[in-house]
Amino acid sequence: MELTDKHLIAFETACKKAGLKITHQRMEIYRELLMADDHPTAEMLHQRLRGRLPSISIDTIYRTLTTLASHGLINRVETAENLSRFEVTLSPHHHLICSSCHTIVDFNWPQLPELPLPREAQEWGKINTTTIVIYGTCAACQK
Ligand SMILES: [Zn+2]
Ligand SMILES: [Zn+2]
């Protein structure tokens, strides 16, 4: 079985668990996001899906992404921009965001969970996840 199929089956199971209906559109949006490695916006997904789903609107895609994100089935990437970017998170990772070309690149920091959090963070409350976002200008944009 292909890896993509495995992820799609896992997604169906997760949808059922979350009480979400499995629709053709939902599956296609998820499949497209699964194959994307650029943390697309709803608009970007719309352009890619239009060939297969000519009647789908940006609004439907955006609503689907928001629903899936609110159930933790996909991840809304926190950026400083007002356009939401999404991804399927197969393993926890952090982001490098270029403020010039808006490219988002994943990076891993396996040592991070071993680092002690500053006191303010520890005393603030219960922490579920720690995600690092680094903003700057990528090497390509510096040229
Ligand atoms: Zn850049
Ligand atoms: Zn990512």
Write up this protein.
The strands form two sheets. This protein has a three-stranded mixed beta sheet, with no helix packed on it. It has a two-stranded antiparallel ribbon with strand order 1-2. The protein is 41% helix and 13% strand. It folds into two domains: 3-87, Arc Repressor Mutant, subunit A, CATH 1.10.10; 94-142, Dna Ligase, domain 1 (2-Layer Sandwich). The longest helix has 16 residues, at 3-18. It has 143 residues and is an alpha+beta fold. The chain contains six helices and five strands. The chain has helices spanning 3-18, 24-35, 42-49, 58-70, 119-124, 139-142; strands at residues 75-77, 85-87, 94-98, 104-107, 133-136. One zinc ion (ZN) binds at residues 39, 87, 93, 95, 106.
**What is the CA–CA distance across the termini?**
43 Å
**Which runs of at least 5 residues are low in confidence (pLDDT < 50)?**
none
CATH architectural arrangement of the largest domain: Orthogonal Bundle
* CATH topology (fold) name of the largest domain: Arc Repressor Mutant, subunit A
Q: In CATH, what is the homologous superfamily of the largest domain?
A: Winged helix-like DNA-binding domain superfamily/Winged helix DNA-binding domain
Ligands, deduplicated: zinc ion
Give the class-level CATH name of the largest domain. Answer: Mainly Alpha
Strands side by side in the biggest sheet: 4-3-5
Number of strands: 5
Shape: globular
Kindly state the percentage of residues in helix.
40-55%
Q: What is the CA-based Rg, rounded?
A: 17 Å
Mean pLDDT: 93
Per DSSP, the total helix count is 6
Assign the structural class, choosing from mainly alpha, mainly beta, alpha/beta, alpha+beta, or little secondary structure: alpha+beta
| Helix and strand pattern | HHHHEEEEHEH
Number of domains: 2
Largest sheet descriptor: 3 strands, mixed
Percent strand: 5-15%
